[in-house]
Amino acid sequence: MDWDRFRIFLAVARQGQILAAARQLGLNHATVGRQLTALEHDLGTKLIERRTTGSELTTAGRELMIAAETAESAFLRAGTAVSNQTETISGTVRVGVPDGLGNYFLASEMAAFAAQHADLVIQLVPLPRTFSLS
Questions:
Q1: Is pLDDT of 45 > 90?
Q2: Is the pTM of this model over 0.70?
Q3: How many domains would you assign to the chain?
């Protein structure tokens, strides 16, 4: 089953109107109506009674709303749990640099970077080469 259809169903159930749900979701009201019809077809039951004054949930619609809200809550909790985890940078980075550049510029920059990433080992390797800048 398509989660987007459940998301649309929840918006209509909460708003009480297809048009209001469509505005909230940034969709065309006809698209919302088609998605609701498709969800009802998938589940084999009528979920919403469409009236001129708005939409009213059927018994099956009320049951689905409870289940869909539970699923939505679990989905949001899972997303929050994953996004709150931070990845650590670890390992060894070896940077070959000419003597002057490594000593005077990169050493202080790399020290600040290493301070932010405690599991990272940075090695500056001097390269005793001469370079032509012409």
A1: yes
A2: no
A3: 2
